[in-house]
Design goal:
The complex is a heterodimer of chains A (427) and B (287). Chain A is of the alpha/beta class. Chain A is 45% helix and 14% strand. In chain A, helix 11 crosses helix 18 and helix 17 packs antiparallel against helix 18. Classes of the chains: A alpha/beta (427), B mainly alpha (287).
Chain lengths: 427, 287
């Protein structure tokens, strides 16, 4: 009896110790492992099959783990992991406000003096720098928003891509009259209401609020959201309402994409990041940018700094992480990124060739246009409530109910003045 | 005695340890951190903020009302439906395949909520589905639609409760009633219903607990800011958002713990109140 008991204990002990020791030795034998936190699950295949092997081959002894979370949960999950000291070594940085909160909490290390940062303009690094201009993330990619259109449908109905708001409405009206296609596909569910901000208000608005100047005026509290220039932006977005799918309010982001891909919608409002899905080679698709009010006016094009990479201040492999970031600043990386992930445009000064014609078409939208950053994403996006959560909900309500642009702008201003100090006087 | 005691302990310890470690300890821990802010004791400040902050308190009360709606619809639809099915299955009128019906009615309860949400979203999708109306996109219909999905999924649970309660009724009293000339309806309402009344009470209170803890199907369908315009936001999703954060909203563990504590108290008081007032009066009829 006693012997059996002893052997049992022995067996259990062995079974516990053996895996533990195997794990321990493998950890010793293994090389430096760097984990990259990201919300770009869509890009996993390209990272795993191309980008990571490229770096690992050139840098033996480094193993990179790509660890994406879903986009909606990324910021909150990351901030919990920072608190619990379990976040990965390399962090994909959101632009503006969210990352600035992490900078303030000292979750990221300053990148001053990182070789290769000279490859970027101060302006492109601004989205990831603190108030005194110290950079915390290597800028990697910018994106844009606009309209894809089905060239076959346009040809059949004898339409041309619109330049002005009046032409835009005329085109939508013509498609509606024909009756066979949904004029404009867009995402309308509350879960995807970010789209109505990033690819709605921020797409059509800059022309009316005069780009960056309008953003600064709202940030400083010198102008309020109910002023004519912002109200005009809300109205321009609301002008889409009669042309959206009948069941817009239950149409998710991917539903809207499907509607367009299946050829049931003539126009799709989308981002440059979907080039591969929406306009694969051979598909007869074109793009156009936000319409202007008067013919001959210069268009505004939103350039959204999309992501950069920083280093977790609690990482044990900071030196290796910084070395990886240095690679992210090189032309080799930027070129590989632009080739493999068309629609994401590298921010470095290097001359990058874009071989995807659709991605190039997106870049061409910037020619002759005034380039601007989105409003609200920087100073107003650092707490709870914030610009993003309030605005997306208000836009969702405006687009799915009878709420007028004036009411939506007033709702937003009322909320903003209650939690954003510079706007407190503009009740 | 001592030896028996030790054996009892031996058998209950594993379950007790589990319960203490995974239910009691987290509960006390949650209540504990709800009194703190950034590791500093602040008394009831988190609760005060929850009930007085303009944005958060209005979200809290609207979530509470949505929970009430969730509970009322679920109870009003699920219970009669389950009772009807159980009565039919035990009435002897369904002559064939009772086992088959019982099984298919119970199968949805065994599915994952995510799958149920996905299937139903496809069924009522405007693009692929059979309904040409944005059920989930209108404020008025969104929450009832989700509630009915949930009712569909969990119909099997009260059904099984009531089914076994009805089966347990001795057949001799039914036969005696029939000999006395009572109709099927009379037998059901005058004999069977009083005998299963305590089960109906238990099911109601379980529905209450389950709806006020509700989270999964709403989160699976609508995410952490359940719309349109927060019309499907319940206490569970509000808690998730305050504790873990969502989108650009950062989580706040102390405030989240305070929210969780309030939810716990609502359920505790509701259940205790029910047992103190109603369940006691539903006496088990003595045969």
């Amino acid at each position: 009896m006693k012997i059996r008991k002893a052997s049992l204990v022995f067996a259990i002990g062995i079974s516990l110790i053996v895996p533990a020791s195997v794990l321990a030795t493998s950890a010793v034998a293994a090389t430096t492992t760097l984990t990259i936190e990201s919300w770009r699950g869509d890009d996993s295949v390209y990272w795993k099959n191309t980008l990571i092997p490229m770096y690992e081959k050139a840098n033996p002894g480094v193993k990179i783990v790509w660890a994406p979370s879903t986009s909606n949960e990324y910021d909150s999950a990351l901030s919990l992991r920072f608190k619990g000291k379990t976040a990965g070594d390399v962090i994909m940085c959101r632009p503006y406000g969210t990352t600035k909160t992490f900078i303030k909490n000292k979750n990221l290390i300053p990148l001053t003096g990182l070789p290769g940062l000279t490859n970027f303009t101060t302006q492109s690094m601004q989205s990831w720098s603190d108030a005194s201009g110290v950079p915390y993330c290597v800028p990697s990619a910018s994106v844009g928003a606009g309209f894809y259109y089905n060239k076959d449908i346009f040809k059949k109905l004898n339409l041309t891509p619109p330049k002005t708001q009046a032409e835009f409405i005329a085109v939508l009206e013509a498609i509606k009259k024909d009756g066979k296609y949904t004029p404009l596909a867009a995402a309308g569910t509350s879960a995807d209401s970010w789209a109505l901000d990033q690819m709605g208000l921020e797409l059509v608005g800059p022309y009316y609020w005069k780009g960056d100047a309008g953003g600064v005026a709202l940030d400083n509290g010198t102008r309020k959201a109910t002023d004519p220039e912002y109200l005009a932006a809300f109205s321009a977005l609301a002008s889409w309402k009669p042309y959206l799918p009948k069941t817009f309010s239950t149409m998710g982001y991917t539903d809207a994409e499907q509607l367009f891909i299946l050829g049931r919608a003539a126009i799709l409002v989308e981002g440059s990041w979907s080039v591969k899905e929406i306009a694969p080679p051979g598909k007869n698709v074109g793009i156009f940018g936000a319409p202007v009010a008067k013919a001959g006016d210069k268009p505004y094009v939103q350039v959204l700094a999309d992501h950069g990479f920083g280093v977790n201040s609690a990482s044990k492999n900071q030196a290796a992480a910084k070395k990886l970031l240095t690679w992210f600043t090189t032309k080799e990386f930027a070129q590989a990124y632009a080739t493999g992930l068309p629609g994401f445009f590298p921010l470095s000064k290097d001359k990058i060739t874009i071989d995807n014609p659709m991605a190039q078409a997106w870049l061409n939208l910037r020619d002759g246009a005034i380039v601007t950053a989105p409003i609200g994403m920087d100073k107003m996006n650092t707490g709870t409530p914030n610009f993003f959560s309030v605005m997306t909900n208000i836009l969702n309500v405006m687009m799915t109910t009878k709420k007028t642009p004036a009411e939506a702008a007033a709702d937003f201003q009322k909320s903003l003045s209650s939690w954003y100090p510079p706007q407190a006087k503009n009740k | 005695m001592g030896k028996r005691h030790r054996k009892l302990l031996l058998f209950t310890t594993p379950a007790l340890a589990f319960f203490l470690a995974f239910a009691v300890f987290p509960l006390i821990g949650t209540i504990y951190i709800s009194f703190y802010r950034e590791s500093k004791f602040v008394g009831l400040a988190n609760f005060k903020f929850l009930f007085t902050d303009e944005t958060l308190s209005s979200r809290f009360f609207s979530a509470f009302l949505h929970n009430c709606e969730f509970f009322i619809i679920a109870a009003a639809v699920q219970l009669p439906l389950a009772l009807l099915m159980a009565a039919l299955l035990t009435s002897g009128r369904v002559r064939r395949m009772t086992g088959f019906y019982r099984t298919i009615l119970f199968i949805p309860s065994t599915l994952s909520v995510v799958i149920v949400g996905f299937i139903w979203r496809l069924i009522i999708s405007p693009l692929w589905g059979i309904v040409d109306y944005p059920l989930l996109g209108e404020k008025a219909t969104a929450l009832p639609t989700i509630t009915l999905m949930s009712v569909w999924q969990y119909l099997g649970i009260p059904l099984v409760f009531l089914y076994s309660a009805l089966l347990a009724i001795p057949s001799n009293i039914i036969e005696a009633a029939r000999v006395d000339g009572a109709s099927d309806f009379r037998i059901f309402f005058r004999i069977k219903m009083p005998l299963i009344a305590p089960q109906i009470g238990i099911i109601t209170i379980l529905t209450f607990i389950w709806t006020f803890n509700g989270f999964d199907i709403i989160f699976a369908l609508n995410g952490g800011m359940p719309g349109p315009d927060f019309s499907t936001d319940v206490l569970g999703t509000l808690f998730y958002r305050t504790f873990f954060g969502w989108g650009a909203d950062q989580g706040d563990q102390n405030l989240g713990a305070a929210t969780a504590t309030v939810i716990f108290l609502i359920i505790l008081l509701g259940t205790a109140g029910y047992f103190a007032t109603i369940q006691r009066r539903l006496k088990v009829s003595q045969l």
